[in-house]
Amino acid sequence: MSSVPDGKKLIRSPSGLRMVPENGAFSSPFSLDEPQWVPDKECPRCMQCDTKFDFIKRKHHCRRCGRCFCDKCCSKKVPLQRMCFVDPVRQCAECSLVSQKEMEFYDKQLKVLLGGGTFVVTLGTSEKSETMTCRLSNNHRYLFLDGESHFEVELSRISSMQILTDGTSPGENDIHTYTSLLDSHFISEGGSRASGMLLHYKPMGSQDVQQLRMEAADDKKVASLWLSAMHKAAKLLYEARDQ
Fold it and tell me: Where is the FYVE-type domain positioned along the sequence (predicted)?
């Protein structure tokens, strides 16, 4: 599955030009679908400031949430990479702030994930570990682990993720899960350094849950940066699933 060509095509939607995968089934798991626009007849007033629309006060739809706004409340054009828009698109104030924060992930964290980090990897309850390089695939759908052996984890089949910090180990009360790590200090600069990751996932072709443990190898700084980026990626993944 991971060897499917990453072909792209340019399409035009009411919101603008989008560069999307030729096969929609292989879109990035971080991507979001375009919203349904609120019908014009259902929004006689701006959904932010309540200004009444007329021939002078025109209505505009936010490309991220699909709601109706006046020009003042929906004037910003911001990149929206999660919907694959080629150019910056019009967004309301609330959505534009979210999109601007996500730009950091695409500009910084995504490059870190693609570059990879080196970890000591243990599968299941095995006592045997292997030093492997872990990186995100170019289509963002898989984690590739390469060492003496090679295997892949499809992001959509990850059921849980725990980030381990210095001094923690699975089973302790102070282990930090995805939900408790969101926007916390544990993996930010100055906080406890992320030292590993514990994944539970279903291998392709199986419904049995497998455990994968990764611990930072020699270059702990690079590994910690990779884990921090993976934590941010998990936030986007969960948002996309809840859409």
Answer: 40-95
